[in-house]
Amino acid sequence: MKAFVTGATGFLGAHVARVLAEQGAELRLLVRQTSDLRNLEGLKADRVTGDLRSPASLEKAISGCEVVFHVAADYRLWVRDPEQMYRSNVEGTRALLEAARKNGVRRIVYTSSVATMGFSSNGRIADEHSPVTLADMIGHYKRSKYMAEQVAIEAGRSGQDVVIVNPSTPIGEMDIKPTPTGRIVVDFLKKKFPAYVDTGLNLVDATECARGHVLALQKGRSGERYILGGENLTLKQILDKLAAITGLPSPSVKVPYVLALATGVCDEVVTGWIRGREPRATIDAVRMGRKKMFVSSAKAERELGWQIVPVDDALRRAATWFRAKGYA
Asked: Is 96 part of any domain?
């Protein structure tokens, strides 16, 4: 099987590429001229230079591939120029699906996110059928992923063989950016977590999530969405697990929402708009935190054979990797 993978230089995409390689797939990886290639070290694969914002480069890159894993996404909770995020996440997905159609690709696995699910403030566990609209999406990242997912769903309705996976919050090694979730681990290791807010996430082992992508290729139904999740945990529970792994203290002070929002406003204005750097705390991130992003993977368990595993090992690998690479 010859597989084309986008996002392999990033966090989750690197895990997907390595799982595919372990299973004997022949890989062709899309890289940009500016890509950080550290996650590709030691990986046997063809590399083609292209960009999701350049449709012509995608058509040439996909030629001859049997399946496509579209994992790449602009994953940031703050951007100075939101238009670039929509070009990559929405229009890039549209262009990639069109390139796959023109090249006769047998099946596409599109990596969406549980960010597109319908969450409530009462902590109700969301699934693929939870009611949600674009108006429910907080921030440009969620909006762009929701819009991109609609593009993939429409392609499936039009006859293209597209399976959609919705990872929860991957955690593990090779998070080179790091992602907003990886920054939780890094900040904890750097003792920059004096307090916490009352929020929650579903954490999934990044390696297991990559295996779930392969299950979706093998067993998923075209046009369907599958949540690939792990453990539903409050932020405090996550920090307590990190404390047990690292020996560092877990914060005991809970920050009220109003204070967290004020911190996000200050950090976004000073760090983002004045200094031109990505803020550690953002208004959108605080607003998202009012809803615990707890999900059910029951559909993937039934139809794909997905299995939920504890995230302790993934947290341990993440902490070890960040330390070894000098992040903390």
From this structure: yes
